[in-house]
């Protein structure tokens, strides 16, 4: 009879380890065998049939051992390899195995020869490991297994657990149906289907609880764990078809991620955003006050693009929602498109192309000019404007630029003191100003009239910057000889019908807001933004946040980290420290960053603390958000 209290019965293969040990053994023993792949496939099929209960376990074992053709010395290699294949969340929660060592059992249909040395490192002694044992011949070759062991028989785990006669609640944690049967037979009280490495439908559908990793198991059982909140509980909603790498990166980290192709209109987003912790969008989704009011769990918004005016940044800040974007990932893509379009416009390539598509051969040099020696006027000399300046000079253009901010000229570019100066001199005007709403109708009838007759206009920044009616008029009159427009005042949320007065006009290139839509840019964004989000969620870093005090935190080692976001009113820091002092907490590091509206205080503290302190900190007046990391 074993002592009372809750008992934890773990499966080994694909639960404590990421793999099935006999598959790994097969890789070792069949090395150099020309039929290796085929035999391994056969072994895996037999393993699955056994796990799912479709063939008897004894049969599965016999057939696999025959195919394996293994030797005692192979087991040493196997153990070495298994050490590197421990399930990630098992590896990170060693503390649990130490603290609960007396209550943890392994019941496996694998073999003690490789299980014992692995689980020993997790404080599980041999005598609490129930598994099969191999039979060897005198040369050390594996020739079979101990058939008298109940675990070598069909549903042997039931008999094994029954024989143990454990007292207290028994929880079984495993990936297979053969683990579930202990619960079905009424010997275990709960079955947790463990899906970190493999999701077996037959086990999952019968489980009391599906646990995607040990963090979740420990969280629901209120047991000591490495991380305060299981990542699978953090819901991320990605809209507007962001690159699938973002989905991969965030899922790999353990978050629950949903990816939708289009943006959502406000009413739908209001419904969908409930319970979401991180929202990922591009330029179409409007994150309004109403959306934020409905977002009960929202911690961060990731703009998978440069522009952020689609997001109510102030409202986000007031709610303690941190916003990140990707300020440089698509810069080069926009610049390359601008160069291409400038050349296409100057050569009247699109009219020629349209004619020939319509069956008309029109070989002519009329309205076809080289870009070499022409004046390019760049409005907005920021990241895109500057890079364009360098490339345009490289193809022989004379660059003029205008910016409201004091920007240093690159190369031989000439700074214009007024927009009018730039418009007067440019053969092509290209717009790269930011998406501030104050830039609405920045180029209207007056500005167009200030341009040279027959000049061209390129807009790859934001649609509302150009007065479309005035542009259409100027194109029709010939005042402007061509335009390339990628962005529009009203753009649809998803692909489909679209109408603009610019359609059908001569020498006008129209594109559906694809300036930054290249594989390279989207892949880079899908790396950059998720990294920022993960950094914020995992450690509290707000470096490069667009609406929040930026803070770069040192790596959190052994301490607990309290993250406190509050309205920036006097005295909050003192109040936080008063509470911490009252609870005798030893601060190992403290960081504060503020702007006019919010303050962000991070306190690193010694491990142990009275949980009441959290309630007290949350109660401090003007607290917006509070969370604990460990
Ligand atoms: N078409 C696309 O797919 C696409 C892709 C990326 C970026 N963009 C847009 O391109 C624009 C530029 O991006 P960026 O990364 O170079 O931004 P940036 O912030 O680095 O540069 C913008 C520059 O414009 C200047 N500016 C702002 N208002 C001005 C005004 N009224 N007059 C003169 N200068 C003004 C700013 O001082 C700044 O130097 C943004 O609107 C962005 O949203 C579009
Ligand atoms: O990809 C998008 O939706 C927007 C691209 C661009 O306008 C940006 O702001 O980066």
TrEMBL record:
Primary role: Catalyzes the reversible oxidation of 3-phospho-D-glycerate to 3-phosphonooxypyruvate, the first step of the phosphorylated L-serine biosynthesis pathway. Also catalyzes the reversible oxidation of 2-hydroxyglutarate to 2-oxoglutarate.
Q: Gene3D superfamilies annotated for this entry? A: 3.30.70.260, HAD superfamily/HAD-like (3.40.50.1000), NAD(P)-binding Rossmann-like Domain (3.40.50.720), Phosphoserine phosphatase, domain 2 (1.10.150.210)
**EC class of the enzyme, as a word:** oxidoreductase
- Upper classification of the organism: Bacteria, Pseudomonadati, Bacteroidota, Flavobacteriia, Flavobacteriales
Gene Ontology biological-process entries = L-serine biosynthetic process
Q: Which InterPro entries match?
A: ACT-like_dom_sf (IPR045865), ACT_dom (IPR002912), AHAS_small-like_ACT (IPR054480), D-iso_2-hydroxyacid_DH_PdxB (IPR050418), D-isomer_2_OHA_DH_cat_dom (IPR006139), D-isomer_DH_CS (IPR029753), D-isomer_DH_CS1 (IPR029752), D-isomer_DH_NAD-bd (IPR006140)
Q: From what superkingdom does this record's organism come? A: Bacteria
What is this protein's name?
D-3-phosphoglycerate dehydrogenase
Domain ACT residue range list? 561-630
Q: Report if keyword RNA-binding is assigned.
A: no
For this UniProt record, the keywords arranged alphabetically read as follows:
NAD, Oxidoreductase
Protein species of origin: Arenibacter nanhaiticus
Q: Which reaction does it catalyse?
A: (2R)-3-phosphoglycerate + NAD(+) = 3-phosphooxypyruvate + NADH + H(+); (R)-2-hydroxyglutarate + NAD(+) = 2-oxoglutarate + NADH + H(+)
EC code = 1.1.1.399, 1.1.1.95
Tell me which family the UniProt entry assigns to this protein. Answer: Belongs to the D-isomer specific 2-hydroxyacid dehydrogenase family.
Annotated pathway, please?
Amino-acid biosynthesis; L-serine biosynthesis; L-serine from 3-phospho-D-glycerate: step 1/3
